[in-house]
Amino acid sequence: MKFFIFLIVSYIIGSIPSALIVGKIQNIDVREHGSKNIGATNAYRVLGRKYGIIVFLMDMFKGMLPLIFASTFGIKDNYLVLIGFISVIGHTFSIFAKFKGGKGVATSFGMFIFLAPIQSLISIIIFIIIVYLSRYISLGSIISAIILPTLVLLLPVNKVISDKRLISVLSLLLGAYVIYKHKANIKRLINHNENKFNF
């Protein structure tokens, strides 16, 4: 019963449209500007650096908080992994935004900070280096989506996970999903017309 309750809670938390909420502070609907995506990257471009960082942190904590709450109530192993996965589904298919959402990068990262902290730290360092050198957030996201599952397979995960087979499979699926959500970005990267990140 606790597991199913936390599944629902995780989906609702994941569904909170951070970019739309923060955008209202400036009376801006991010769905009408930039890439029209309600993720952190478009929020950064449309709302500015300060609000973009706030959106990123909110999206990240959407993936982390359900796991912290669930583990506090004794939920662990595969149940915990599934609860984290549902938060990402909530972000990409938000019930509060007509089942549309972001690409799931920040929320997935928040989930893996809890489930696989070492791998997440390495991935974010690589992400920052790639974005700094190339100025393409999409490229950093895509490469991180490839590296993280590899690291999950090779390195130990959070001790609340006794069998890491499911989290390994989930990291591969989420990595593939993140890459799929970036298919338009991949085309623009190939055509050399992808928007560069402005520091």
Automatic annotation (TrEMBL):
Biological process annotations from GO: phospholipid biosynthetic process
EC number: 2.3.1.275
Transmembrane segments: 6-23, 51-73, 79-97, 109-130, 136-157
Subunit comment: Probably interacts with PlsX.
Family, per entry: Belongs to the PlsY family.
Record bears the keyword DNA-binding: no
Organism: Hypnocyclicus thermotrophus
Major localization class: membrane
GO (cellular component) term, any one: plasma membrane
Name of the featured protein: Glycerol-3-phosphate acyltransferase
Gene: plsY
Molecular function per GO: acyl-phosphate glycerol-3-phosphate acyltransferase activity
Protein's UniProt keywords contain Transmembrane helix: yes
Keywords assigned by UniProt, alphabetized: Acyltransferase, Cell membrane, Lipid biosynthesis, Lipid metabolism, Membrane, Phospholipid biosynthesis, Phospholipid metabolism, Transferase, Transmembrane, Transmembrane helix
Subcellular location(s) per record: Cell membrane
Membrane topology field: Multi-pass membrane protein
Record pathway: Lipid metabolism; phospholipid metabolism
Catalytic reaction(s) noted: an acyl phosphate + sn-glycerol 3-phosphate = a 1-acyl-sn-glycero-3-phosphate + phosphate
Summary of the function given for this chain in its UniProt record: Catalyzes the transfer of an acyl group from acyl-phosphate (acyl-PO(4)) to glycerol-3-phosphate (G3P) to form lysophosphatidic acid (LPA). This enzyme utilizes acyl-phosphate as fatty acyl donor, but not acyl-CoA or acyl-ACP.
